[in-house]
Amino acid sequence: MGKPSPSETDQVMDEHDEFEELFRTYYPFVVRQVMRILPSPSIAEDIAQEVFVQFYHTDRTVIENIPAWLAKATIHATYNHLRSEKRHLARVKKESLYLLDSLPSTESEWLSREDVVMVRRALLQMDDRERTLLLMKYAGFSYEELAQVMQIKKGYVGTLLSRAKSRFRKLFQQVRGDGG
Question: For the domain 106-176, what is the CATH code?
Answer without folding.
Answer: 1.10.10.10
